[in-house]
Amino acid sequence: MSEDKTSVDNTVRDKDNFAIKVKDLTRSFDGRKVLDGVSLDIRTGETMVIMGTSGCGKSTLLRHMIGALTPDEGNVHLCGKDITQMNECQMNEIRKRFGMLYQSGALFNSMNVGENVAFPLRQHTDLDEEIIRIIVKIKLELVGLTGFEKLMPSQISGGMKKRVGLARAISMDPEIVFYDEPGAGLDPITAAVIDLLIMDLTKKLGITSIVVTHEMASIFRIADRIAMLHEGKVVETGTPESIKNSTNPIVQQFITGSAEGPIPMRRTSEDFLEGLSN
Length: 278
Fold this sequence. Notes:
By secondary structure, the chain is of the alpha/beta class. It has helices at residues 2-12, 58-65, 88-95, 113-124, 129-142, 158-169, 188-205, 216-222, 240-244, 249-256, 269-276, and strands at residues 18-29, 32-43, 47-51, 73-78, 81-82, 98-101, 176-180, 208-212, 225-230, 233-238. Mean pLDDT is 87; it is low at 1-15.
C-alpha cells in the first residue's frame, strides 16, 4: 500500500528535508468525507504531482496546504511550521514564502502585465519602485515574456496569461510554488511549454513544486514523484516509472483512461456537479 511505499521512499532520500508534511488530514463537507486520513511528505526541491479523478479530493488537499481551509483532524507542516494552528496574521507571514499559479491565471484585468507581477511586491515589501521594476523585468524574462509589461490581460493569449501568473507566483522568490491544473484550457503545445517552464524554474530557482493535475502527458513529463488520490485517500505514491508499472488497478485505470475498472463512472448531472465542487 502507499503508506509503506512512501515511508521507504522518504527514508532513502533526505529523510528530514521536507518542504511539506501532511499528516492524517481529514475534512468533511455536509457529511461527506472528502479527505480521509491523508498523509503525504513532499521533499524540498522536488516536483510532486497530485493526480486523481474529479471529486477525489486533490483540490481540497491543495487548499489545506496553502492554508485556505482548516482540517477537521490532522495537520499540515509548511516550511517546518504547523499552519493548522496559525491565526490569520501568522498565516499571512507564511504565505510570503510560497507562490500560487491558479488554474485561470487569476490576473487582475484592470492592471497591465507588469502591474500584475509587481502586485505582491507592492503589497508585502517596502522596496523602491525602481527595484520592483527590475524584479518584474527579471521574472518576465524567466517565463519568456520580455517586453510585455505594458500589455493588458485582454491583449494576451491564455498561455501568456498562465506565464504572467507564473511570473507573479515567483515574484517574491518563494521556497514553494503550488500549481492548480496549470495546463487546463491550453492546447497540447502550449501546455507542454508551461510544463517546461515549471521544470526549468524548479531547477534554476531551487524551489519545491506541487502540481495538481489530471493531464497524463504533463504528469509523466514533470514529476519527480506522484501521489494518486482516490475517494479522499492516497492510494499510491512513487516515481513516474513505478506509477506506470503499478499493479494497483485504481492507478492503472486512471493512467490508461479505461472506462472499465474499480473507479466508478459519473453517470448523472448531480454526480458531475458534485465532482466540480471538489
